[in-house]
Design a protein that fits this description.
The chain is mainly beta and 215 residues long. It folds into 2 domains: 1-73, no CATH class; 90-214, Immunoglobulin-like. Helices cover 9% and strands 33% of the residues. It has helices at 81-84, 161-169, 175-181; strands spanning 23-27, 30-36, 43-45, 70-72, 95-103, 109-120, 125-129, 134-140, 152-155, 196-203, 208-214. The protein has a 4-stranded antiparallel beta sheet, with no helix packed on it. A hairpin with a 4-residue loop joins strand 6 and strand 7. It starts with 22 loop residues before the first strand and ends with a strand.
Amino acid sequence: MAAKRVVIENPILNSPFFEPSRHFRFSEDGITDEIVENRRISQYFIPIAPPKKKGVKQLSFETEWTADRIEENKFIMGETLLKKTGAANLFMVFGEPDVEIKPRKDGQIEVSVRGVDVYDPTTGEIRSHGTDDIACWFIDTDYNGESFFVRQACFTGADEPYEKLRRALRAEIDEAAWAALSATKSYPFDPPKTGKIAVKVINHYGDEVMKVYPL
């Protein structure tokens, strides 16, 4: 039996100036004129595969906009995919490095990185990560407030970063030189003339955060 055709006289439910708060419900027969009092979650319709047998008529999209073909967009609705794997993160809202700044007796300064704190938009909580989750971190020891200049670079993290770098470059790397760069503590440096330093941290997924520290 053919599905009942629904005529929606006024399809506009929401104001263009505010967040959507209502939507029309889809059923097994297609769209209905029933109004649901909340915002529709991000979804898409599963495409109809072409017929495998010759002579079989392709199904028409006109009759297939039904609830059984709706799939939740897991890349937007972060309660599922984004929550399970770090590699699935589409973006980082904001965060900041967890560092310790120590003045030395000789007047120079040392910076130690202890991890990175990241805001999780799916839960509204702050996630704290240790140095194993940091791929590299950089210091601008004389930050001018406009451009970040890498004056010191360090590479940390677990999961054999040295071996990964060696395979990526397809070359042998001086292990002593690498060991000097693989550190959570900076080399001593003079106090900045600008009165500020900046620390940038990048995790294994390419997300980066930066914070400026006045000294």
